[in-house]
Amino acid sequence: MDRIVEEPVENKSEARILQLLREQGESSIAELSRISGLGKATASRAIQSLRMRGLVEDTGDEFRRLASGRPGRAVRIRPDVGLYLGISLSAGGVTAVVADAAKRVVAWERQQADSLDGTVPRATSLADFAERMLERAGCDRKRLYGVGVSVAGPVDPRTGEVGNSVIIPQWTGSRPHEDLSAHFGKPVLLDNDANCSALAELLWGELNCNTTAVFLRLDQGIGGAIVHNGEVLHGRTGRAGDYGHVTYDPNGPECRCGGYGCFERYLSISSVESDLSATLAEIQVRTRSGDAAALEIVRHKGQILGSLAAVVSRTVDPDRILIGGGLLALGPGLLDAANERLHAINRTASKIETASAATVLEDGSLHDEPALGAIGLLIRQERSIA
C-alpha cells in the first residue's frame, strides 16, 4: 500500500525525535531523550533543528511523565503542519475523524446505518462523506498527510484486500484503498476494526507500549487484536486474534465460518437481540430498569465472555485484556460476570477492562473508536525507518 511522502529528514536523530512526537503528541526533551535512547544534548540539538525548520514548537506548558524530577518544557509538532483523516466502516455506520499533526482531534462525525439507505457504502461514498465533514469543519484537504481506513472484516496485510466478511460482504475481495487513494490523491492505509481499535488504545488510550495486551471487540461479530511491545500482530493473512471463531460449544449452532458453536454465535449483538427478541437499545433500557430477564441474559453473556477471556489468558498470557464494541451497551453487569467467570477458571489472569481511547471524542464513552486507530496507521507507518 501507499506511503506518506513528506519533507525528508536526513538526520537520523531528528527523524527519530520527529516520529516519537508523532506518536506521543507532546513531550519534553528529557522524556524524548529517555525513550529514544539518545543523549539529552543530541535530543536537544535535534529539537532545535526541527524548531528552526518550522516543524516543532514549544507549547508553553510544563511536561512531566515520571513521578520524580523537575518537569520539562513541552514541545510538539506544529499542529498546522498537516492533517490526518481516519474513516471506519461497519454495519452500524461510518465514522470520520480528523487529527492535526500534533495528534489532537479537531473534528469528527458519525453517520448511522439507518441514514445509509440500508446499504454498505462504496469507497466513493465514504470519500464523499469525508469530504463533506472536512468542509463543515473548515479543514483544508490539501493539508492531508493521508487517509486511514478501518473495516469490519479481515484485511490481508500484504495486499490490502478485504477478506470474506458477512458484516460488509460487498467489500469482500475489494481493495478500497486504491479507489480512495485515487480520489484524495493521498496515500491510504487499511486494516480491520479490532486492530485499529487496539492501535487507538496505544496512541490515545492507556495501553502501555511495553506490555502485551489482547483487545476483544464485541459488536456485530467478534474481532480480536494482539499487541506486543507496542506492535499490533497481524499474522500471515491478517487474522491474528480471530477469537470469535474459536469453539465455545462444539454441539452449538453452525457459524458463518463453517464451524459449530463459535464464540461469535453467543457474543454478537444479534445473538443478544435474538435471545430477548428486542433491539440492543431496548435491552439497554430494560437492564437499567432492573428487568430480571434482561439482567439474566447479560449475566449469561458475561460468563461466556469470561470463558473467552480465559482462552486468551491461557494462550497469550497478556498483561491486559481490553474490550470494546457495541455490546458494552449492556452495562457493567456484563464485565462483572465476565471477570467472575475468568478468575474462576484462571485465578492469575489479568482482569478484563473496557477501552478508553474514545473518550477523546466523547467524554465518558465506553466505546472504542476504530477511526482513531485508522489515523494511527498513518502515524505509525514511518516508525520502522525513523
Description:
- This protein has about 375 residues and is α/β, with parallel strands linked by helices.
- It folds into three domains: about 10-80, Winged helix-like DNA-binding domain superfamily/Winged helix DNA-binding domain (Arc Repressor Mutant, subunit A, Orthogonal Bundle); about 85-195 and about 370-380, ATPase, nucleotide binding domain (Nucleotidyltransferase, domain 5, 2-Layer Sandwich); about 205-355, ATPase, nucleotide binding domain (Nucleotidyltransferase, domain 5).
- It has twelve helices and 13 strands.
- It has helices at about 10-25, 30-35, 40-50, 125-135, 175-185, 195-205, 265, 270-275, 280-290, 290-315, 330-345, 370-380, and strands spanning about 25, 55-65, 70-75, 85-90, 95-100, 105-110, 145-150, 190, 210-220, 220-230, 230-235, 320-325, 350-355.
- A five-stranded mixed sheet has the order 6-5-4-7-8, sandwiched between helices. It has a five-stranded mixed sheet with strand order 11-10-9-12-13, sandwiched between helices. The chain has a three-stranded antiparallel sheet with strand order 1-3-2.
- β10 (about 220-230) and β11 form a beta hairpin.
- α2 packs across α3 (about 40-50), α4 (about 125-135) crosses α5 and α10 (about 290-315) crosses α11.
- It is globular and about 65 Å long.
- The two termini are about 20 Å apart.
- The mean pLDDT is about 90.
Descriptive keywords:
20% strand; Nucleotidyltransferase, domain 5; 36% helix; 386 residues
Mean pLDDT: 88
How many strands?
Answer: 13
CATH topology of the largest domain: Nucleotidyltransferase, domain 5
CATH superfamily of the largest domain: ATPase, nucleotide binding domain
SS class: alpha/beta
Lateral strand order in the biggest sheet: 6-5-4-7-8
Silhouette: globular
* Helix-strand sequence: HEHHEEEEEHEHEHEEEHHHHEHEH
Give me the number of helical elements.
12
* Main sheet characteristics: 5 strands, mixed
Reported CATH architecture of the largest domain: 2-Layer Sandwich
Helix percent band: 25-40%
Q: Taking Cα atoms only, what radius of gyration do you get, to the nearest Å?
A: 21 Å
